[in-house]
Design brief:
Distance between the termini: 16 Å
Number of helices: 5
Largest sheet: 4 strands, antiparallel
Mean pLDDT: 90
Radius of gyration: 18 Å
Strand content: 15-25%
Number of strands: 4
Number of domains: 2
Helix content: 25-40%
Structural class: alpha+beta
Length: 144
């Protein structure tokens, strides 16, 4: 199974034979690809807005952003408008979750970056608005 997962991954992203061999160096990438392949069948990553004040994009409390474990935003499950300032803040928590998955740890138990906020300081601090969201790893229904 693990070699088949690696082969499928390489084909999906367009690696040539030399790149497939280079992928094996260090072992950490193979472990990571295999772990995320398993986790992708079980988990999604969710950012839910818990605070929104004067947001130019229109985000409101309760809005959700759904990503797969690879960090891809699943467009049909997200708000139509995506704000680069808020979405860019998702990178660190997604990387932390990926690291935990890669090491066989519980993905939802990250210590840092459980919340993100857009970098806008809000009108009181010479900005415009402010949005904060909480990250969660959601176990999907129908897992094996």
């Amino acid at each position: 199974m693990p070699l088949e997962v690696i082969r499928k991954y390489g084909k999906r992203v367009g690696y040539n034979e030399m790149e497939m061999e280079e992928l094996k160096e260090g072992g950490h990438r193979i472990r990571h690809i295999n772990a995320l392949a398993r986790a992708s069948q079980v988990f999604t990553i969710q950012f839910q807005v818990v605070s929104a004040v004067h947001c130019n994009t229109g985000y409101a409390v309760g809005d959700k952003f759904i990503l797969d474990v690879d960090g891809n935003i699943i467009s049909k499950l997200n708000p139509k408008r995506l704000c680069v300032y808020l979405v860019s803040q998702m990178m660190v928590p997604v990387a932390l979750i990926n690291e935990r998955l890669s090491e066989g740890l519980s993905p939802g138990e990250i210590h840092f970056m459980q919340y993100i906020r857009c970098p806008d300081a809000g009108v009181q601090c010479l900005g415009y608005g402010q949005v904060m969201a909480r990250v969660a790893v959601i176990e999907r229904r129908g897992k094996e």
